[in-house]
Amino acid sequence: MSTSTALSSSRHRAAIFRALRHRNYRLFFIGQLISLTGTWMQSVAQGWLVLRLSDSPFLLGAAAAANSLPVLLLSLFAGTIADRFPKRRILLITQSTAMVLAAILAFLTFSSVVQIWHVLILALLLGVVNAFDAPARQAFTVEMVGREDLLNAIALNSSIFNGARTVGPALAGMVVAWIGEGPAFLFNALSFGAVLTSLLLMRLDTQLHRGSQRGGMLRAGLAYIAGEPHVRALLLRAGAVSFFCFVHIPLLPIFARDILQIGATGLGWLSAASGCGSLVAALILAQLRDDAPRGKLLSIAATMYAPLLIMFTQVRSLSFALLFIGLCGWAGVTTMALTNTLIQLTVPDELRGRVMSVFTLLLMGLSPLGGMLAGSIAELVGSVPTVIAGSAVIGWLLVLLVEWQTPQLRRL
């Protein structure tokens, strides 16, 4: 390899990981990588546990919806909390609480006393935690890296989220198939120690990181969104994708067991394939320069998601299922990560927590509700693939409507 080629390769790697030059973000990156692996193990194991206990598509969706209901009810209020109090303090509280909830689920499962209502209540409580955790976490990123490395940090956040989403489900599938769901829940509880340690080791500027005392009212954030057409359109498109196109996520156990007939291990591989596609998307985004056509890439990904999902619902070959679910992962992360970035680059610092709470509501609140609705309809009509494909068509039409009404988004 020539010297110039080696230098070019070195600069390329440095560009991909430039947010890691910030010490606080390096700590956050490592802690999250470990913790999120446990989170994804629990997600897959919980879905299989619900299906084993209930044999009901509706309850699969209901477990996901129980997690999202508090996000819908509380995330806007949580955004004002994120703007008024130190975000690290909020994250220490939320992550500690999530650790306790995972430990309780592990204990109930190991004791062989776990019932559906236990899972639903714990999912509801975890939803309360997520409602406060997500806006604070989103807004904390810019405090760790600054605006100049924000896109790279968001892309790297997506890479660790989806790297864990690739490894965690595959591990969970094997663990559940061999020894049951309990060990997956226990690993998740223990993994929170990594992120708590990383938060405690950070050195923060107390002046820079103290909570904003200005504009504490929720209506200030909502008024900003109403008056900013680009942000409003970005949120509407994200909401359409989240509610209508993410419906397959809680229903994947049905595909694994009944449609593709690949069992718990196969469910892990399906989730891992989606995570792999998402990881590829995150690594591509991490390489984008500030002058990259982010708006065009966002439009392409948002428009492609629904057709890819429809193709996934129609195939019965495991190879093609893994391919299309992986491509769905790419489209979904590209859509949401670029939406996140473009909103954060637009919104004023003092309103960031409140505006990101709306994004959190759309991403984490609407998606499981869409899954529960799809599961309810599927239980009535008896065909999960048909219901998911129909939902994807509706989402696709709404995305195309936003594209038609706001073509300027492609120039962002």
Automatic annotation (TrEMBL):
Residues 24-407 form the Major facilitator superfamily (MFS) profile domain. Keywords: Cell membrane, Membrane, Transmembrane, Transmembrane helix, Transport. CDD domains: MFS_MefA_like. Gene3D superfamilies: MFS general substrate transporter like domains. The chain crosses the membrane at residues 27-51, 57-78, 90-110, 116-133, 154-179, 185-204, 234-256, 262-285, 297-315, 321-343, 355-378, 384-402. One of its GO terms (cellular component) is plasma membrane. It is a multi-pass membrane protein. It holds the Pfam family MFS_3. It comes from the Bacteria. One of its GO terms (molecular function) is transmembrane transporter activity. Its main location: membrane. InterPro entries: MFS_dom, MFS_trans_sf, TM_effector. It is found in: Cell membrane. PROSITE patterns: MFS. This is Major facilitator superfamily MFS_1. It comes from Chloroflexus aggregans (strain MD-66 / DSM 9485). The lineage of its organism: Bacteria, Bacillati, Chloroflexota, Chloroflexia, Chloroflexales.
